[in-house]
Specification:
Length: about 325
C-alpha cells in the first residue's frame, strides 16, 4: 500500500501542528509505503536548555500523535513503535498504517482540533473546569500511559516558589539566554515564537512563563491574569527516552481534547528544565511519577497571536529506496 502526495500533505501538515519547546519543530519524516518514520532533527535541538533531548522527544511524540489523528481521518488504523531500530537512533517513532477503509472512530474526531489548538499565553477567565471534564482529560493522559495530576491550592502555592526560582535562573544564565534568543521574538514566519505570540506581560505577579524574559521585545501590552490558575502536571512512571515520547503522545491527546471543549493551554515548564527544581516538582506531585510538563489550562479571556509552522514539504526526507 502506498499513500498519495495529497495524503502525505495532510499527514505531515497535521504532524507539524504539534507543540514543541520554543516551537523549534525538531522533526523530520520519511515515508515508505504504509510506514512513516518520525526522526529527530539534530539541527533543531536545544543543547543548553534540553541537553538530554527530553522535551525534544516529547515534541516528537506529540507530532506522532497528530499523524495518527490525521491517518484516522483518512481511514487508516495505526500502530506505532518507539525507537524501532537501535541501528538508526534518529528514528524515534515508526507508525504503521493499515489499508484505507473509513474514518477511524475516536481519533478521527480530533482532526478538526488540530488547526484550532495553539499555545495560549494570555489570561484565562477566572472560571472552574467541571470535574467531569477534568476527569476526561485525565483519562486522555492515561490512554497514552501517562498521568495528569491536578494541583490544589497548596500545591499551586508551592509550585509558585519553584517557578520563581526557575525564572531567576532563566535570566541569569547567559548560555540559555543566547540559545533562547535564536528562537524567541522578532518577526518569524516559519518557526520559533514571534513577538506577536509572546502574549501580554502580567500587570501583577502571575503563573506564566515569559519567554522574552531577559530580552527587550517592544510593543507588548499588559493584562491581569487569573488569580487562581488551573494547573496540571503531566508525568510518567518511568523516566527514560521511551517514556518521554509517551508523554508527548499523552500531551497532544490531552490538548486536542481540551481544545474540543474550548479550553486553552500554556506551559510553565521552566520548573522542570532544571534537574534540582524538577525533583522538587516530583516531590510536589508524589514521587511515583516523573514530571515532564506543567500545563496551565482554562478558558481564554482574549485572542493572542499564533506561532508559525514550516511548510510540510520542508520536513519530508525524500530518498530513493
Amino acid at each position: 500500500m502506498s499513500i498519495t502526495e495529497d495524503e502525505v500533505g495532510i499527514l505531515l501538515t497535521a504532524a507539524g501542528q504539534a507543540p514543541s519547546m520554543h516551537n523549534t519543530q525538531p522533526w523530520r519524516f520519511e515515508i515508505d509505503g504504509p510506514v512513516i518514520d518520525v526522526l529527530l532533527d539534530t539541527d533543531r535541538t536545544l543543547p543548553v536548555a534540553d541537553p538530554a533531548n527530553r522535551l525534544v522527544r516529547v515534541g516528537l511524540g506529540a507530532a506522532a500523535f497528530n499523524l495518527r489523528v490525521a491517518a484516522a481521518m483518512l481511514g487508516h488504523e495505526t500502530t506505532l513503535a518507539i525507537d524501532p531500530d537501535p541501528a538508526v537512533p534518529d528514528v524515534v517513532v515508526r507508525i504503521f498504517l493499515s489499508s484505507r477503509n473509513t474514518p477511524v472512530a475516536g481519533l478521527s474526531s480530533l482532526y478538526g482540533e488540530l488547526g484550532r489548538r495553539f499555545t495560549y499565553r494570555g489570561p484565562m477567565v477566572d472560571a472552574p473546569i467541571s470535574p467531569w471534564l477534568m476527569q476526561r482529560l485525565s483519562e486522555a493522559a492515561k490512554a497514552e500511559q501517562a498521568d495528569l495530576a491536578w494541583l490544589d491550592q497548596e500545591q499551586r502555592a508551592r509550585l509558585g516558589s519553584i517557578i520563581r526560582a526557575a525564572d531567576d535562573r532563566d535570566v541569569h544564565e547567559e548560555d540559555r539566554l543566547q540559545e533562547r534568543d535564536q528562537w524567541i521574538g522578532g518577526d518569524r514566519d516559519s518557526e520559533g515564537v514571534p513577538n506577536s505570540a509572546l502574549g501580554p506581560l502580567p500587570a501583577r505577579p502571575a503563573a506564566i512563563r515569559d519567554l522574552a524574559a531577559g530580552a527587550d521585545h517592544p510593543r507588548r501590552g499588559t493584562a491581569v491574569f487569573e488569580s487562581a490558575p488551573i494547573i496540571a502536571v503531566l508525568g510518567t512512571v518511568q523516566d527514560d527516552e521511551q517514556a518521554w515520547v509517551r508523554a508527548g503522545l499523552a500531551l497532544e491527546r490531552v490538548l486536542l481534547m481540551a481544545t474540543s471543549h474550548d479550553l486553552a493551554a500554556s506551559f510553565l515548564n521552566q520548573a522542570v528544565e532544571y534537574p534540582p527544581l524538577r525533583d522538587q516538582v516530583r516531590s510536589l506531585i508524589g514521587r511515583d511519577t516523573w514530571p515532564h510538563l506543567i500545563i496551565r489550562i482554562g478558558y481564554p479571556a482574549e485572542a493572542t497571536g499564533l506561532t508559525p509552522r514550516r511548510p510540510w514539504q520542508e520536513t519530508l526526507n525524500r530518498r530513493a529506496r
